[in-house]
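FIELD: query
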Amino acid sequence: MNLKITGLHLEVTPALRDYVEEKLDRVVRHVDNVIDTSVTLSVDKLVQKAEVNVHLAGKDIHVEATDSDMYAAIDALIDKLDRQVIKHKEKLSEHRVAAPQPAAEE
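FIELD: result
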């Protein structure tokens, strides 16, 4: 998985980078086919905003969250992303229904 973390009007400190990587590990556990992940952290006046674009095999997921604290925004972002990844994984597994059983001959 390629991970890119950028900051707009914000310096991405090593502590912030480690926090994002630690939280993203939770999402990666649910799905194996993560190709690329791009995280953007930004500050606009008093609003802290976190966005993520996750490129999966066959699907792109975009999630954003805002809060007054950057760590809280990252937590909300990861929760939303986790729900969407699980939903996508469930849709994939629903399409793989077992083949119909042949009728028993009497």
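FIELD: remark
The chain has one domain: 2-93.
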